[in-house]
Amino acid sequence: MDLLNFLKDWSEVWALLIPLIIIVLFKPGSKQIRPVILYVILGLILNFIATFMLKYHYLVPSYLYVNNMSNNNLLYNLHSMARVLLLSWYIINIKKYKASIILKIFLIGYLIFVLLDFTLIESPLFFSTRIYSAESIVLLIMCIFYFFRSMEDESRTDWLKHPSFPICTGIILYEAITFFIFLFFYPLSEKNPEFFVATMQIYSLAFILFCILLSLAFYRYSKQLNQTSEKL
Amino acid sequence: MDVTYLVIVGIGVMLLMVVSILMAVIYNQRKKNQHRTALEKLREQQQNQLIEAAVRSEEQERHRIAETLHDEVGAILSSAKLHLLGIKSDVLDERDQKLHEKGRELLNDVIQKVRGISHNLHSNILKEFGLNEAIRHFIKKVTEGTIIKSETELDDNYQTENPDNDISMYRMIQELVNNTLKYANATEFLISSVLTGNELDLVIFHNGNGLTQEQFEELRYQKEGLGLKNIQNRIILLKGSIYFAGSDEGYRINIHVPVKSNQS
User: Fold this and answer.
1) ipTM for the complex?
2) Exposed/middle/buried for A227, CB within 10 Å: 0-12, 13-18, 19+?
3) End of a domain among B96, B122, B148?
């Protein structure tokens, strides 16, 4: 049971270790994938510190305490922002389209929203469900845009085999599951704490699935690189 | 509405939407793949039709030239020979007799050469006695009077199913044997064939310096490699395959041809 609890508590950390191991073992060298690699490394650091602060709160410096409680919310907020920026950067650059400008404008809108939210509405030291919901909206739109683009694209018929496919599938599944969980995060935790705990477990499972699909994409990128070098 | 139900319904709707999008993408990609496969098949079919037309027209042209040489040039030459023989050589002086003799020899040579070219362009043996006999005759003709030792081990179970295919196989053998004699410096070679079911395997084996598969692939795209290009076209036409291999013992050319596929 201890091991199960340990795995549950640290799931956000070890889940990101899966793609990291694939990166180390297979070395996907494509420039295109760099934002996602950066996200995995950054996400792992942020999640590790956040989980560490939760488990070993007595080691946390006092200035990070809010209402006499150890606070890792800033790290979760940062993680959410990193996910939006890095994964959007990746999706926009999969293939250049005129419509990519719309996505860039959309991303700038998100940044303005984050800035306004943290300066005018709430402190970044509090867990911002607005930021998480905005993340879901932005990434869902990015992924839907990607899938429609892949359907429109007549130049290639192997989108299902392209490494970007598992990444976008992972993102869209993760965001679709977590959108309503974070939208009703506080009301749910107050009105139905038991179900709230269950949703957190669903969230963990969605995150693990997302990480596995990222690993698959890294593996595909490394294979693609090997095939290209073989051809050369 | 209770927030719990709201979350459950919300997640359900979102997942349904995501699954629908993924299904649409997969369906779309499958459709595109089917379309691409159909297009590729059509392109291949068109390419084969073009090759077939080129090979057939080449064969028709060979036939026409062979007929002209045999029926017209050959006839005129034979007539010229008759006229020449009609001259009474005993009334000629010694110098004219020598010239008459030389002219007769040259005329005989030309008649033989024209006949040879005509037969080479259009083999009557192939038409009348089939592929095996045509190959045997051809090999005997090209190696007769040379130091080259040749042997044929052809499977007599093979019966002509499609005369056009036989012409293609014969032309390939002709081209490959001519190339071997010209470039490989071979002193021995063997031509064999084995019929297995509906598939015929022809093998040319020689002890000279032959081609490897890599060299063949390289040469057949060069302008000078017209003969090899023709071989490749005929292979495509016959839906067969050709493979070049070398070893310490010698070089081997394997031709694999399905012998009944073009009938349908």
Assistant:
1) 0.87
2) exposed
3) B122
